[in-house]
Amino acid sequence: MPLILFNKPYQVMCQFSPHATRDTLADYLDIPNIYPAGRLDADSEGLLLLTDDGQQQHDISHPDRKQPKTYLAQVEGLPDAEALTRLRNPLDLGDFITRSCEAKRIYQPEWLWPRDPPIRQRASTPTDWLAITLAEGKNRQVRRMTAAVGLPTLRLVRIAIGRLSLETHPLLPGEWCEVSPSELK
């Protein structure tokens, strides 16, 4: 029962079935009977876990057992103390209220690969980086949270799920490795 860490490239669909216009997981992984434990939107990059064990998949992705997930968000604008406080506290996004989370300003990590294609740059609008760790994971949650506090996300990279991280398991986009399931616990 393998546990696969995969660094999902930008614009790749989190599915094995063919897609009309985009690459899918099948273009990168030729391992029979594995399935993603959770998802990343096509316009998000980074760590995705895959397994052939249904119970393990359930344990990783079930809302009651979710592993904390850490994201790096490059945002448009400069976060101030008020925006960071709003991100950390429950935030009403209209259809749900987020749980408290960790959110802090960071420098862009030196190990982070350049995105292809690069994000748009505006000379008159600065960008900054946030590290956000969630104990939940709703559809497009980080993007919706940063937009709600006036900091639209330009780039979103999931770097960790539980104890598994792209810092400790360096993989370039499209690369994968197998790890012991015990590393997740």
Principal-axis shape = globular
CATH superfamily name of the largest domain?
A: Alpha-L RNA-binding motif
How many domains is the backbone divided into? 2
Distance between the termini: 15 Å
Q: Structural class, please?
A: alpha+beta
Supply database-style keywords.
Alpha-Beta Plaits, 2 domains, globular, 185 residues
Description:
- This protein is an alpha+beta fold and about 180 residues long.
- The chain has two domains: about 1-65 and about 160-185, Alpha-Beta Plaits (2-Layer Sandwich), CATH 3.30.70.580; about 70-160, 2-Layer Sandwich (Alpha-Beta Plaits).
- The chain has three helices and nine strands, in the order βββαβαββαβββ.
- The protein has helices at about 55-60, 80-90, 140-150; strands spanning about 5-10, 35, 45-50, 70-75, 100-105, 125-135, 155-160, 165, 175-180.
- Strands 1, 2, 3, 4, 5, 6, 7, 8 and 9 form a nine-stranded mixed sheet that branches.
- β2 and β3 (about 45-50) form a beta hairpin.
- It is globular.
- The relative contact order is 0.24.
- The model has no long low-confidence stretch (mean pLDDT about 90).
Question: TL;DR of this structure?
Answer:
13% of the residues lie in helices and 28% in strands. The protein is of the alpha+beta class and 185 residues long.
Question: What secondary-structure arrangement, pairings included, does this model have?
Answer:
Blueprint: E1 3-8, E2 35-36, E3 45-51, H1 54-61, E4 69-76, H2 81-88, E5 102-106, E6 127-134, H3 141-148, E7 153-161, E8 164-165, E9 176-179
